Amino acid sequence: MTGKADGDRRMPRLTKQFVNRILAEPEAKDRTYLDESLSGFGLRVQGTAASWIIMYRTHEGRQRKVTLAKVGTLTPDEARSLAREKLAEAAKGGDPASDKTAAREAMTVAQVCTWYLEQAEKGALLGRHGRKIKDWTLYQDRSRINTHVVPLLGAKKVDSLSLADIERFQADIVAGKSAKARTGRGSATRGGIGAASRVVGMLQTIFEHAKRARQIKANPADGVKKHADGKQRRFLSLDEITALGEAMRAAPDESPTAIAAIRFLLLTGLRRNEALSLPWNWIDTKARCIRFDDTKSGAQLRPIGADAVALLEELKRREGSPWVFPAERGEGHYIGLPKALGRICERAGLEGVTIHVLRHSFAATAAAMDYSELTIAGLLGHTLASVTARYAHVPDRALVNAADAVSEQISAALEGRISA
Length: 420
Description:
By secondary structure, the chain is an alpha+beta fold. It has 16 helices and seven strands. Strand 5 (283-284) and strand 6 (289-292) form a beta hairpin. The longest helix has 20 residues, at 193-212.
């Protein structure tokens, strides 16, 4: 039987020997050969290429043809086994052709991340507490996506990811596989447990947004076992704060803005960006508070102590700049604090001190002064309904008094007036 069209099919047993013989025959090109032992399983020959296929009808009676794999990637027995599985799915009402199309069109991790950023920038997605995702959060997310997610996971289909894939991705970040030198503003991008935990947490959130919007079927990062959180637990004792104060006074070449920002962070317990991007018009020195339009926990008042207010009153405002801590060049706020703090801590002989350690040091000082966790949470601006409700419109007097006492204690340590 020697057919000339695709409809002319032979019914051989599809074996390796048969395939080799057919591919060696010039007249056998552009034909389909169906297997005699498994109905619907076949070999499709087109020019010099050959593929394993299945042919079946859907429950609606539509004829389907699906390519399983190229000859050479699967043996005849492997192809027959896969064909039997797919044909069984079709017999049960499934449609392998549609499944294959869906898999081909499924979003990659990079595509889901792009969708998330675009939707968040438009305000179509809500973050924690039901509020629009903040610009700073998106800036951090974009950086983590470009640095860690896209290089390590971006090309993979989200629907094909398993928990093992996510945990392997996490381990790769810990190992520094996505670490690189960063050019321009900022410092080097490193791996580590802390970075891995934050990136995986972000990815869980992105996938959850995409799942709710029906962009993906499931959240593949749901239930992932994270590494130890890597949270910062370092804080400065009063003696170390004294050493830091001495180093700041002995650093005449250091930026006055950096010195003032370090003192302000210690005296208030503010987060890095809350302090460095603080505009003058949010400060109420009479009520001794900062009236934040937006924070990590939303709009709120934050009480600050008298020593912090005194520091603010000593600062010279730069004409035309809205920032308490303006950049040394340009119109933005100051960003060079990490390096400045590192130089000062090296001078003071202090190790392991980051900007966040200053916030922890404020909290640790308050705890050592026997203030309750609730009071400390209020001073730090944590989201606790029982706290925020008490000072949502005017600063709570008890919290202002606590801020006074804690900032006075830290100020005294900075100036060398006390020791632990």
